[in-house]
Design goal:
17% of the residues lie in helices and 29% in strands. The protein contains seven helices and 28 strands. Strands 1-18-20-21-17-13-16 form a seven-stranded mixed sheet, sandwiched between helices. A five-stranded mixed sheet has the order 8-5-7-6-9, with no helix packed on it. It has a five-stranded mixed beta barrel with strand order 22-25-24-26-28. β20 (305-311) and β21 (315-320) form a beta hairpin. α1 runs parallel beside α6 and α3 runs parallel beside α6. The protein is elongated. The chain binds ligand LQZAQKY5 and molybdate ion. Molybdate ion is lined by residues 301-304, 321, 323, 326, 390. Its EC number is 2.10.1.1.
């Protein structure tokens, strides 16, 4: 408060929505890039996929068997098989095809082109395979010429996969903005594309600050704690679709932190720091970046102190609070939407559902609380795990959702209907 008792800019508490709106108004999708198919996995496309080819590219057989003329098999049965003369073999990839005349057929393999004159395929199991006995279970070696007895008639087009029956040249196959998973990448390859235009994965650098931090695997001295934030946040960035680099344990020295950030900027589309943003004597991130990004306090619990801005007017930097639960939830609520925006996603927020809460919950007045919970989709229930403390990493690892308690609510009773934000969807 200033001397007149009015709220100054520094005192102002931002709502969660105001902070997110500021982020979404600032962060832009990355410029598109042509990538090799497998480098684009998980990215969102920029263009619609229009096929320049027919698939299949030619009429072909869906079975190992014989390519036949339909009239030759009229009335064929076990008792009165049709006897055809076999004029050749057609394997997948064959280009020199025999012409099938009346009374003739060719052995044909799955995927092989239909030879001219043939109208259908009979599977080998409906023939004697040229062996002169009853029906066989598979192609008989060396019977590519001679005679074959066929025990059933054939419909025109039976077991023939038609040219263009799957995909037509000129057809629109996928709209822009599709996430490239295995089937979509397979489709690009199937229509002959070796590259695809996408928004690339943002490169995210994750930095942990704090002179008290030691890296996992090292001995922990008095007053020290293990750096867990850089692991959780790097994993969360990858989960959101980013390429993430972890830089653990920058000490509480503003000059050193500025130096590390400058070094990291060569490989960063976005930077995330944790720790050093509150009001202590060693709040290194605030000291190092106070002039370059905006530090603010939110009507939120956990996650009250936050820093956000563009470094050099281009690279978004998120200065998240150091408490592990605060850092992780801040990432979920603010950094993840920024990464998804850079990827070009239309929907950047986690989904929410309504559920019945199974236990009482207290919440601070004037702050939106995000309580860790286990959500049971079948029962439509959310069960809080652990308490409100933002150092509680044990229960955080049990949670798959957050119960959202509005700013004006100070108590929720078991059995009430609440909003639940799903962390795993
Ligand atoms: N007088 C006040 N004190 C605090 C306030 C306040 O308003 N007035 N806000 C509290 C809130 S809320 C939060 S959140 C924290 C934010 O603190 P910092 O961002 O400055 O974080 P640190 O002080 O560096 O660390 C806080 C806590 O988290 C642990 N930590 C830090 N980094 C890591 C890491 N990489 N891995 C695991 N744990 C980490 C650190 O040891 C501290 O215990 O400030 C409150 N104080
Ligand atoms: O806001 Mo702090 O993030 O409550 O622990």
């Amino acid at each position: 408060m200033d001397v007149c008792g009015t709220e100054s800019a520094a005192d102002r508490l931002w709502t969660v929505d105001e902070h997110l709106d500021d982020i979404l108004a600032t962060v832009r999708p990355l410029p598109p890039l042509d990538l090799q198919l497998l480098d684009a996995q998980g990215c969102l496309t920029v263009d619609e996929l229009v096929s320049s080819v027919d698939l299949p590219p030619f009429d072909n057989s869906s079975m190992d068997g014989y390519a036949v003329r339909v009239a030759d098999l009229a009335g064929a049965s076990d008792e009165y098989p049709s006897v055809l003369s076999v004029v050749g073999d057609v394997a997948a990839g064959a280009s020199d095809l025999p012409v099938i005349g009346p009374g003739q057929c060719a052995r044909i393999m799955t995927g092989a082109p239909m030879p001219p004159g043939a109208e259908a395929v009979v599977p080998v199991e409906w023939t004697d395979g040229g062996a002169g006995g009853g029906a066989v279970a598979a192609m008989v070696a060396g019977a590519s010429s001679g005679e074959v007895r066929v025990f059933r008639p054939a419909e025109p087009g039976a077991f023939v996969r038609r040219r263009g029956g799957d995909v037509r040249g000129g057809q629109s196959l996928l709209p822009a903005g599709v996430r490239l998973g295995p089937a979509q990448l397979g489709l690009y390859a199937a229509v002959g594309r070796d590259t695809v235009r996408v928004r690339p994965r943002p490169r995210v650098v994750v930095l942990s600050t704090g002179s008290e931090l030691v890296q996992p695997g090292s001995p922990v001295g008095p007053g020290q704690i293990t750096d867990s934030n850089s692991f959780a946040l790097t994993a969360a960035a990858r989960d959101a679709g980013a390429i993430a680099y972890r830089v653990g344990g920058v000490p509480d020295d503003p000059a050193r932190l500025r130096e590390v950030i400058e070094d990291q900027l060569v490989r960063a589309d976005l930077v995330v720091t944790s720790g050093g943003v509150s009001v202590g004597a060693y709040d290194v991130v605030k000291e190092a970046l106070g002039e370059r990004i905006s530090f603010r306090r939110l009507r939120m619990q956990p996650g009250k102190p936050q820093g956000f801005g563009l470094l050099d007017g281009t690279v978004p930097l998120f200065a998240l609070p150091g408490n592990p639960v605060s850092a992780y939830l801040s990432f979920e609520l603010f950094v993840r939407p920024a990464i998804l925006t850079m990827l070009g996603a239309a929907e950047v927020r986690r989904p929410t559902v309504r559920a019945r809460i199974t236990a009482d919950l207290d919440s601070p007045e004037g702050r939106r609380q995000f309580a860790r919970a286990r959500w049971d989709a079948d029962r439509g229930e959310a069960t809080p795990v652990g308490g409100a403390g933002s150092h509680l990493v044990g229960p955080l690892a049990q949670a798959n959702a957050l119960v959202v308690v509005p700013e004006a609510t100070v108590h929720v009773a078991a059995g009430e209907d609440v909003e639940v934000l799903l962390l795993t969807e």
